[in-house]
Known about the structure:
Strand 1 (118-123) and strand 2 form a beta hairpin. Helices cover 18% and strands 20% of the residues. The termini are far apart. Strands 3, 4, 7, 8, 9, 11 and 12 form a seven-stranded mixed beta sheet that branches. A five-stranded mixed beta sheet has the order 2-1-10-5-6. The protein is globular. With 329 residues, the chain is α+β, with helices and mostly antiparallel strands.
Amino acid sequence: MTIIRVPKSWELPEQQVTSETAYSNRRRFLKNLVGASLGTGMLSILGCQASSSASDKALVETLNQPKLKSLATNPAFASVDRPITDQDLAGQYNNFYEFGGSKSIWQAAQNLPTKDWKLQVTGLVKNPQTYDLDDLQTKFPIEERIYRFRCVEAWSMVLPWIGFPMKALIKAVEPTSEAKFVRFTSYYDRKITIGPGIHLGSLPWPYTESLRVEEMANELAFFAIGIYGHLLPKQHGAPIRMVVPWKYGFKGAKSIVKVEFLANQPATYWNTINSYEYDFEANVNPNKPHPRWSQATEKFISSGPNLSWEKRPTLLYNGYGEYVGGLYG
Length: 329
């Protein structure tokens, strides 16, 4: 298994921003927010940690979820201009803030309880619904879509998601004309989703994200229930997560328990913590730098030494402008 370890040169201001830099700065503004000491025992956000053969086996076991049957790939999203990221690599390089600030949260995420999962759809809708795990697999048109994935920290992957378009859920629940926004709420239990190791009470849990209704109705907007031909592993946000590939990754709430249609724009997690650095819209835009680094280029996560990771220009809307450009004038 390839071990990812980013060299110190990435920390230089003139270089492409690194995950470590991003994490350090997130920790800084969180510390200012809650007035608490962060401590020094947290794992690096750089990437995968060195692991024994026993932990390698444990990782494989987390990825070996039940296969999804009768799976067809949507021909409109059958490929992109890069190879699909290796399954093992994608399975151990995850942002899932509910389980810690490190990229290596795949072990902690196994504490997520998914048995008897319920997804509640409520708010300004004519047909409120509650779906269980079986419903998510049988009541919607399941397909595979290969999407680019772009993190606000300026790294990227290509992932083969399995799920259904969000517009199918809209059709099922029939939002009223008053519904303008949709809030997605992630699972939260303070005893289980322990967060990044700082004072949890001052952070805006549970993790929530939001889209405008017309964004949710866009062809690209997707609910993932699987990846790599299998049901979602817990570190990827099982059993259901948002996938909005024209936006930065933090917009994709994981382990969703509630979808609410609302009249007014709701608060969201990172935008609440620091609206200056994590705006509500969060569309991928090479011409709009993060306040502390450029978004003009990105590093494509792959095997091999970190300095060999391919660096490419960032595409407006992550390359999906033909689908979403009209939403933003």
